[in-house]
Records
---
Amino acid sequence: MNETPVVTKGDGATAAATSTPVSERADLRPENIRDAVIRLAGNSQDGIQTAGAFLARLAGRSDHDVMTYMTIPATISGGPSIFQVRIGSGEVLSAGDEADFLVAFYQHSYQDHLDFLREGGVLLYDSDNVEPNLDDKRFVYVGVPITGLTVEALGGTAKDKGKNIFVLGLIAKIFNLDDDKLKKLISEKFAGKDQSIVNTALMAFQAGYAYPVGNVLTKHYRFEHFPKTSGRAQITMDGNQALAYGLIAAGVRYGAGYPITPWSSIMETLRRELPKYGGIFVQAEDELGAVSLALGFSYSGYLAVTGSAGPGISLKAEAIGWASMAEIPLIVCNIQRGGPSTGLPTNVEQSDLHQAIFGSHGDSPRVVLAAASVEDCFYIAIEAARIARKYSTPVFILSDTSLATRIEAFDEPDLSKLMVDPKPDLTPREGGFKPYDLERITQHIPPGTRILDGKYPLIGGLEHDEMGHPTGSPKLHMAMTAKRRNKLRKLAEEIPVPEVFGDQEGDTLLVGWGSTYGPIHDAVKMGREHGEKIGAIHLRHVHPLPNGLEKIFANFERVVTVEMNDQGLYGFGQLATILRARYCEPKIQSVTKTDGLTFRVKEILQGVFPGKFVSVRGYSPNRPVSGNGEQDVDVARAESIEQGVG
Amino acid sequence: MSMLPAPSLSNKELVNDDVDLMSETTPTTSPVAAGNRQSGSDSPAIAEPPREKLTKKAITADLPTWCPGCGDFAVLAAFYKVIEKRQLEHEKIVTLAGIGCSSRFPYFVNGHGAHYIHGRAVPLASGISLARPDLHVFLFGGDGDGFSIGGNHLDHGARKNINMTYFIMDNFVYGLTKKQTSPTSPIGFKQDRPHGRNRSAGESDEKIDRRRGDLHRAHSRRKVNHMISDRARVRSSGLQRHRMLERMRDFPRRVRSGQSEEGRQLRSIQEKKWDNTPEDELRHDVTDELAAHKLASLPFPGVFGVFYETDRPSKNALEKKWIETTREKTGGASDLELLKKTFDRMK
């Protein structure tokens, strides 16, 4: 994408819609588009997530690329909420800087989100609740009495429940979407509930679809169709689902957790799914119990998972230290949110990287992986399980709120090649087994395995000799500490060096980790369109880092990490701090931000090239005052170190 | 296929959820199912030699590091006796513990086992017990580990009723860290380090654990045989808690002289025999929760024996049932088919 309006194809017809007030023309002229950003803004109980998810599912089913973005208020019930869907005929990497189409259910939705609508974009508003300023000629106004028509269509006691589905019908008409497929999706979604609910939903959809939108709009849009080349069907799900199913594919059959936003839905999925596979997921009494149960499962021979968000991971930290010491494999998911403490429970932040790498006590090496996209949530789980088993170590998977809740369509994984058989090896062993053999990477023998010389291993958190017996020997502590560290150095050797996207050499190399993958890649595209020599790498293996990054760094004038965390006391984001420590390279800088929202493409470019790119508008979905402007986007420059250290 | 590992799991252990571990049984000799070998495993398949009788010698490991005269020795000796009597398969014995003097227990038993962190051994044992119904999970700890830092886990472990046998060696004091007060230290218990002032001994813990898990109290010196007698329920179902009252060697003399057991006849709980005699009226019904509470509230040192027993189904049994009904609904589909089917619904 670029800075011009997102609706790019066609004969400039987009512009025709621009500043054209409501017209009387009844015939909708078709217009081909490649990409559209639709933002639904309402309150959290209006079901806009449901309507948005239908659009995302439909896009996936129709071979389109799709990405969603949502904000939920951290209240118990109610509060402003948005759901944004970006549907594209090409590659969709980010949820979009601007909306082409804004649906405003309330006056506050209109006021808070109008700034997000691009010039020439369409404002579809509920004329029963919203009074827009029609004098502002930048937008196309489409007023539909959504509430009244929904009540009229459904009657009864439902009041305006169902207006989300009514709007879905409207959108289906305007974007010429496949209404049969949508109806099928609606029926599937509500299947299992009372038939009257399905009927009501379909009535609401039909009412929206039949609304004579031609009275207020001059054309409808049609997504160009580019058949996918992979030949694989697309599946549509959110990041937490992808992570949960990735774990199942990876042969993880046991786990334990405790509810916390935004991790909970992984726990719920696994609790529901694992019994089908003969496994168990336990909701424990607390986070400490959860990680301990998971370690019990792992010790018994079944690699297990636990997870949480940052505060819960803090509670698990002692047990994770034990897992490092005892060398027990374990997968720990951290679905990051804004912190510290309860922080911003429903917002996104990448501020738990250092917690993942260092957060325990003593020298407790572990592995940290970060998922780049919803699709990657699936594959990173498989990689985490592979590493945990091979190196008998705790492995963190870092995801975040934005990945957890956003829906993407991706190629169905080739499960027949990926599924792992999770049975422990209980074959009787000859004697002489040493659980902590200094000559090799620890592979524990699960309990229940007969050892023929009758000498059984005991594993534990006390520093131990090769047989697992406690020792206070200085030499052994040094040797065992090195053993635990060196196995991860071994792992670093086999991690592939990431490919450079964009320019292979030049001025700026962006380095990202986690959910910033999409915006960073879009920023590289946009930057190159504007003549910048810019490339990017994205790290899936954050700790240990792959070997050979220094060769990539050498090809660029500067290296800038892009992170959703604070620049800290010394002026660098958390990954930048690690990279600077590792490579002693002053040209490593960072662009950081802490507004609890995902990066917009322009914010990245603004941060990397101060003053060069158009200023970011001070837009924020439900907190208009919490500036998301350029002052929040910090480039950690050398002077900030001077200021910081003083 | 079901992922529940059940290598050489005897029908009795699976079906009868209430096996009396104290009764002598012939050890099952079936070798580990060949299907349990991981594909691609490089461990050589070896023929299993016949089993010898499991002796105390075979299950003895490191020399215990406890202070001379510590009550933990008696529990260790009793544990060896239980194992010898039961003749469990050696590799199926798992000993676990948290942190504390008594929690060094697994180091002194030669068998699969783990020494975990302070207070969290109950959930660790729960994970092992749930995933591996073929194992005998023995858990050891002290009053600090079980009643203080791990109090929450004890409560919920008992509520979930997960199969394991938990021996709590209660010496009313933190021994490993040198005599700080524990939750069971009596009121008036003072020593040079932090001044202790706590609930009276025996008052706190049984109440915490009032529900569900079986409860048995023994005294390390005189009544430890209770634990291995025929009446003791060292069973395979649910969580059984055995609290061993112990006297730490250096326990302050003042406390000892004031309210200790010295010179006093320890009283045993007389359990109902259900023989319709007038004496039986006065005996304790171990299924009566309220009566168990009353007994547990008696002043120190209280009474010894079985306080409470319940037949509430274990979490192991409930999870197993859930897996079976869920698996039935899937029509025995393979893992691959199951996940493919799920993805089909997301297209």
---
Amino acid sequence: MKLLTHNMLTSSIIKGVKKGFPLGIAATDIKVSEVDFNPDFIKKMIPKLEWSAICEAAESIGHLDGLPKELAPDYETDEDFLKKAHHVIMEVEIKEGDLICPETGRKFPIKNGIPNMLLKEDEV
Amino acid sequence: MSLPTPCLRHLTTSNYEHIYEPAEDSFLFLDALEKEAEFLKELRPDMCLEVGSGSGVVSTFIAQLLGNNTYYLCTDINPLAADTTQQTGQQNHVSLNAVVTDLTASLTRLTTQVDVLLFNPPYVVTPSEEVGSRGIEASYAGGKDGREVTDRFFPCVPRLLSPSGVFYLIAIKENKQDEIETLMRSYGLTMEVVITRRSGPEHLSVLKFTRRKL
């Protein structure tokens, strides 16, 4: 699971949970693999992300890797920044671990790099 | 122009005991996307989401078509299917991002962010009791009129689609396309039929929905 995917996930389907975002991460296996850098893609993704959640997630798994926590107004032209953003949202993958609902503590397992967000019927 | 069908050699009959084996409906979906290739490229989608991705053949195909300017998310309620989706992507050198969830339940942050939405749903008319499985039955069992799962999903479509977004759906005649068209029109979505094919007893169509006024 890439941090870009993590930024799209919530636990708001749990009964009584309001926002369910961002989900906490307890990672037991993290893999960093090289992905072709596509600056245009990164530029158009950033406005769709909740940046603070990206940084919080990256920091919590020890992979902030120099990424600035504030988006600079001219980030689109800052190649160094775009490369760092690319690395954090596309190259760092959580292979095994848990996602954690911020409101209930409910854990969702990540196996083989895939988060399992299914709930039991009585939780919905 | 004919794009190659994604390679599925890594899958064997033992996989297909647990996940849906690509069949005529899947291949009709690929043909529809190929027919729509120019439209899809001009759309320049940022986010593509396939619901019920199964073997991953459809998302792999569209990822090969559209390239790495798009992020590909795939959901399946069957964990083995989600695994297979991701493997099929890897085998074909495209990056698919699978999530195990019911339809798009945990993806509420994608509101108005999805540019291409794909769903080859469980459309087969079956007894209602067969609906609700998390195994292979989930890939085909559609309950009454083959609509019990899609009817649950349709209200999500206008929320997910971006202003220029497009939703492609497979349906059979028994699913009552006229009713689907009327329902989707009430959400401000216009229906077109991309392609139709008869395959044995199934009269299959790929339907396309956009906010475009005809």
